[in-house]
Every structure is written in structure tokens, then in C-alpha cells.
């Protein structure tokens, strides 16, 4: 078991000038391989791959001791610690010791549960645990397989993305069957007429599912709280019906990725009931687990209209990945859409549940075992206490942010997520997030919520305390104070001061107390250290869907293409310098002993910036 404590580092590049100082000019600065590899060799950072493993697998066996040593020295430095108290990114990873032990036993058993006959215990336990789970969340009895008169049930999938895809494929099969009737026309003929609907705040997996299923997707705008606008949904469906299209799938979200907003399931359900071809799926990947709390079930009202519902115990129920629960109102509709039953998979136990018909893969892991361990070890009360602690800490952070007039909270805080930003333009907020992540002391991610760039602060650690929240807020304020010295605050809305009086947008905020403003910007050399919160190019970021802004969207501070061009320019001019002795991109060391790249200045650095 790994016990060594590692600093939480997320940055991917180090200061290139420091690297240049250590290298001889006889080396070529290849932007695509050598420089990056050498940087990582010299500075293995948490959150990056240190790129120094052997290119080939060993021919002979190696000792387990050597493997573990390499694990410590070469793998762990590239790990992002999702269970760290200062990890506030994405959503909780859901680990707990009962879950890990259950997963270890599942791996040791090694059964491949594609049918009841292949492992009866796996199939039976999954049925039992899914019914436990549904009852704990207070789901409608139609989703509980052992409820009187129920035709529904549930199964554990690998992820919420699988749940959405499986539900969409099932809805598509049902809609095509109704359109096709008794004709012999191929199913693909009906695909162009099918159309699905999702909120602009819905998860990007919805868009991916529609692409995979070859159907249209219409995006419905959200209101100021991030909830799908039901009036626009109603109008869009009516317009599409009039145009000869077939609305067949609507996704409502409880706990959106960007801001943890809750769609009005009841009103959406009433609209869907007016069109018989529509399948209503409710995606509750993160927040659906909160329905284990009676006080949160105000947001589950309307689930009686849903044809399917999913939530991830690996996000907020202390169960390690992978585990995503999907329930459907009519199991036979699901099975008929996905049923493939060759002779070698058939068996004589007709009453046994074959879960291969409930999802995409044939082979299935014994996931129910770890969830069974979690329910039995914590009990419903223990799980409720855990979630309530996250909610209380998020409310604490929200209160701290709202007390500081330089910041604002952009979402309604119902669970463990707070979306905040400085009352400035987006660029200072980009910089704030970059410096937070570069510090290695905390990790957060950005999102677009209600059209505004925000920083997502999500309570994730199982044993998080108020001290963790207070420490994080103190560090955030320190970074913000440095940035605000260099930027004129811009108010996008009329802020309210702690005294309750309003300030017009034309009135400037009071200057930041402390050191006087420093007229400098993050220089190109310095910015190399802040280049990424994620390792993607600007082109990749800009090409992402404008319709479904995923809360885990990478944000780039410096264009990596420009960075790579500088690398290449340095390499070319270094060659010329080596060959003819002319002045090239690699200059002589400066008075501090640092070698610089051409066009990368180190100006405007003073003691006030340290």
C-alpha cells in the first residue's frame, strides 16, 4: 500500500530558461520529443507523465521489489491525487476502504458475469443491491424489480456515458419499431427523422451518444439558474413535429456538470407525456446520489414521468470507479433493444437474469460486490452523514466568497459544488485558476455556467473538514490579491456590498490593501510555467462543442503552438550558431547564468512579484 505523501502538483511544463541553463548548446532543441522528455526527466511533476520508462517490455521476469520501486519512483510522480484534502476539481472520486476491498475480492474471484449461469452470485447480488439502492434513493416503485406489479429494474454500468448511450439506443429502437410497424423497411431509413433534446447545461456525453446513434440533437437554452427552459422545450418539440420529425429522446439533468443545477423533472415530464414517442431519461450522475437524503428529494419530484434514471455511486457514494447505476421503467424494452443470444450463451435457468442484455458489453465485472460492501459498512445513515458534511462545507465556502466583494458566486449551491469568479473579465480569472493549479497546493477546474467563465470548487475528500475549506479560501485570496493589483476590476453585474448597499457598475471598487500595484504582466518566460491546466492545444479547446459546455473543459493560458514554434526556431538557429558561429537564438548566459530563447523576455521582474 502506498503511504508516502506527495505534493499535489498539476503543472505540465517548467520554466524553460532554467532547463536551458543546464543543457549544452550541442543538443538540438526538438520541440516534439527531446526538450519535453528532458524537462520531464529533470522535473517529474505530479499530473504529468515522466516519459522515461523502457520502450520495450522486459524479456525476462523482474523481481516484484523492483516493480514496486519503479512504481514509487516513476509512476507515483505522475499521479494526480484525487483523494487529497485539497483536491477540489471535477467531482468526488468516491473511494473508500470497503469499496476497495470489495473490488479486490471481485478481481480475485475473476468471474466474467455475462449470464446468470456464468456466475449466479454476481447476477443475484446485483439484483439485490440495485433494489437496495433504488429504495435508499426513494425512486418510484416502477424502477424496483421486486416491487409489486413492477416491470422495471436496474443494472450497474461502467459510466454515466454508457447509461445515456444505452438509454438512447433503447429509445431509438422503440421509436423506430413504432414508425416501422409491420413493414420490412430497414431501420436506418428512419434515422433522419429522429431528434433528441437536451439542455445547454447537459453533459457532453449526451452529444456523444447522439453522434454514435446517428440521430439529431437539439439544444435547449437554460435559464439564469442553469435549468432547462421548459417553455423552449415545448416549443421546439412542437416545431419539429410540424416539420415532420419524430421527437424520441429527452434528457433532463439533476446536478449539471457546470453548476450542479437541477432541471424541473415534473414540468419536463408533462411535456414529454404529450408525445408518445418520447423517452425521458434523467441524468443524475453526481447529484442523484443526494436523494438518499430526504431533504434533497424535492429535486427528485417528477421521476414518475421518467423512463430511465442513472446516478454514479463512484461520485458521491464512496464507491470506487467504475460504477454507474441505471434503472429503467420497462426492462423488456431495454432487453429487446440490446438482446443478442447466440447458442453458446444460452442456459437452462430461464428465471435467472442475464445482465449482458442490460448494456453494451458482453463481459461484465462483479461490480455489485463493492457496492454491497459500502452499504453494509457505512449503512444508510453513514452515507447520509458523509453527504451532509460535503453540503455543509460547500455552504461554508459559499459564505466566505459572498462576504468578499471582489468575488461572486454564480450558481445555486445545493450540494458540494460552488462556482465562483472574481468580479473582473475572464482573463484575470483564467490567471487565477492557472496560478492556483500551478502552486501545487490545490487543484480546481473551470466551467462555463450561464454563459460566464467560472472556477469550480467542489468538496471531494471523504474526511474533509472546515479547516480544509478555510485554508483553501485563504490561499485563493492571496493569489487573487496579486492578480487584482494588475487589473482594473470590471463588474459584469451590479454587486452588493456586505453592508447591503448597491454600487453602480461605473463606480470602481476599493483598491486592494497591501503592497502597491505592480505594473507588470506575466511574461512569456514566466508564463511557460503557467501554460496549462490541461495538456490540450488551443485549437482543440476552441473546436469543442459550443452547445454542451462540459464542466471539465480545459483552459489554456498560453498558446502551445506559439511555444512549439519558439522551440523549433531555437533549434534551427542553434544549428546555424553551431555551424557558423553567428549569433543565434541561444544567447550567452546572462549575469544570472541563465540562457534565454529568442523572443522570450524576462522583463518586468521585481521583488514585489515574489
UniProtKB/TrEMBL annotation:
Q: Compositional bias (Polar residues) spans?
A: 490-499, 569-593
Q: Which residues form the signal peptide?
A: none
Please give one Pfam family short name: Pyridoxal_deC
- The UniProt annotation puts the region (Disordered) at 489-520, 569-610
Q: Which UniProt keywords apply?
A: Lyase, Pyridoxal phosphate
The family database entries (InterPro entries) matched by this protein are listed as: Aromatic_deC, PyrdxlP-dep_de-COase, PyrdxlP-dep_Trfase, PyrdxlP-dep_Trfase_major, PyrdxlP-dep_Trfase_small, Pyridoxal-P_BS
List, alphabetically, the SUPFAM superfamilies matched.
PLP-dependent transferases
Q: Which Gene3D superfamilies does the UniProt entry name for this protein?
A: Aspartate Aminotransferase, domain 1 (3.90.1150.10), dopa decarboxylase, N-terminal domain (1.20.1340.10), Type I PLP-dependent aspartate aminotransferase-like (Major domain) (3.40.640.10)
So which cofactors does this thing need?
Answer: pyridoxal 5'-phosphate
Protein family membership? Belongs to the group II decarboxylase family.
Name this polypeptide is given: Aromatic-L-amino-acid decarboxylase isoform X1
State the organism of origin.
Drosophila kikkawai (Fruit fly)
Amino acid at each position: 500500500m502506498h503511504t508516502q505523501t506527495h505534493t499535489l502538483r498539476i503543472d505540465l511544463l517548467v520554466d524553460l530558461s532554467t532547463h536551458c541553463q543546464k543543457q549544452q548548446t550541442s543538443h538540438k532543441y526538438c520541440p516534439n520529443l527531446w526538450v519535453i522528455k528532458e524537462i520531464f526527466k529533470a522535473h517529474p511533476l505530479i499530473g504529468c507523465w515522466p516519459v522515461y520508462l523502457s520502450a520495450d517490455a522486459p524479456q525476462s521476469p523482474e523481481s516484484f521489489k523492483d516493480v514496486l520501486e519503479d512504481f514509487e519512483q516513476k509512476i507515483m510522480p505522475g499521479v494526480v491525487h484525487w483523494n487529497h484534502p485539497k483536491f477540489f476539481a471535477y467531482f468526488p472520486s468516491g473511494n473508500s476502504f470497503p469499496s476497495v476491498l470489495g473490488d479486490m475480492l471481485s478481481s480475485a474471484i475473476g468471474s466474467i458475469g455475462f449470464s446468470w449461469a456464468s456466475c449466479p452470485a454476481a447476477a443475484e447480488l446485483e439484483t439485490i443491491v440495485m433494489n437496495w439502492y433504488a429504495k435508499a434513493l426513494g425512486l418510484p416503485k416502477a424502477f424496483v424489480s421486486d416491487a409489486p406489479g413492477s416491470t422495471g429494474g436496474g443494472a450497474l454500468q461502467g459510466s454515466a456515458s454508457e447509461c445515456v448511450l444505452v438509454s438512447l439506443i433503447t429509445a431509438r429502437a422503440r421509436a423506430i419499431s413504432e414508425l416501422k410497424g409491420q413493414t420490412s423497411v430497414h431501420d436506418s431509413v428512419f434515422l433522419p427523422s429522429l431528434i433528441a433534446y437536451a439542455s445547454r447545461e447537459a453533459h457532453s456525453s449526451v452529444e456523444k451518444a447522439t453522434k454514435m446513434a446517428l440521430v439529431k440533437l437539439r439544444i435547449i437554452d437554460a435559464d439564469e439558474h442553469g435549468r432547462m427552459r421548459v417553455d423552449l422545450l415545448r416549443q421546439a418539440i412542437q416545431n419539429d413535429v410540424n416539420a415532420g420529425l419524430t421527437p424520441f429522446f429527452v434528457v433532463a439533468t439533476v446536478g449539471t456538470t457546470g453548476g450542479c443545477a437541477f432541471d424541473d423533472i415534473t414540468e419536463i415530464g408533462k411535456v414529454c407525456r404529450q408525445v408518445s414517442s418520447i423517452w425521458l431519461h434523467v441524468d443524475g450522475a453526481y447529484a442523484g446520489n443526494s436523494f438518499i437524503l430526504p431533504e434533497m428529494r424535492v429535486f427528485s419530484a417528477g421521476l414518475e414521468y421518467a423512463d430511465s434514471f442513472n446516478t454514479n455511486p463512484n461520485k458521491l457514494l464512496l464507491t470506487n470507479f467504475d460504477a454507474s447505476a441505471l434503472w429503467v421503467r420497462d426492462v423488456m424494452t431495454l432487453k429487446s433493444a440490446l438482446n443478442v443470444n447466440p447458442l453458446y450463451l444460452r442456459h437452462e435457468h430461464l428465471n435467472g437474469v442475464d445482465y449482458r442484455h442490460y448494456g453494451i458489453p458482453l463481459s461484465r465485472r462483479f461490480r455489485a460486490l463493492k457496492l454491497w460492501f459500502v452499504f453494509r459498512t457505512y449503512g444508510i445513515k453513514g452515507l447520509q452523514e458523509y453527504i451532509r458534511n460535503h453540503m455543509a462545507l460547500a455552504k461554508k465556502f459559499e459564505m466566505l466568497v459572498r462576504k468578499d466583494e471582489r468575488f461572486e458566486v454564480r450558481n445555486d449551491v445545493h450540494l458540494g459544488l460552488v462556482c465562483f469568479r472574481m468580479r473582473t473579465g475572464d482573463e484575470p480569472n483564467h490567471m487565477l485558476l492557472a496560478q492556483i493549479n500551478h502552486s501545487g497546493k490545490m487543484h480546481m477546474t473551470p466551467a462555463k455556467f450561464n454563459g460566464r467563465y467560472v472556477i469550480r470548487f467542489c468538496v471531494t475528500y471523504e474526511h474533509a473538514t472546515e479547516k480544509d475549506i478555510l485554508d483553501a479560501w485563504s490561499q485563493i485570496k492571496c493569489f487573487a490579491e496579486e492578480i487584482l493589483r494588475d487589473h482594473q476590476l470590471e463588474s459584469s453585474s451590479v454587486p452588493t456590498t456586505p453592508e447591503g448597499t448597491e454600487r453602480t457598475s461605473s463606480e470602481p471598487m476599493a483598491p486592494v490593501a497591501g503592497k502597491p500595484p505592480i505594473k507588470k504582466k506575466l511574461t512569456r518566460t514566466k508564463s511557460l510555467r503557467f501554460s496549462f491546466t490541461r495538456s490540450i492545444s488551443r485549437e482543440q479547446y476552441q473546436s469543442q462543442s459550443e452547445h454542451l459546455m462540459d464542466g471539465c473543459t480545459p483552459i489554456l493560458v498560453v498558446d502551445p503552438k506559439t511555444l512549439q514554434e519558439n522551440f523549433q526556431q531555437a533549434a534551427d538557429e542553434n544549428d546555424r550558431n553551431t555551424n557558423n558561429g553567428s549569433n543565434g537564438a541561444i544567447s550567452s548566459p546572462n549575469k544570472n547564468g541563465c540562457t534565454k530563447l529568442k523572443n522570450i523576455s524576462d522583463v518586468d521582474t521585481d521583488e514585489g512579484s515574489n
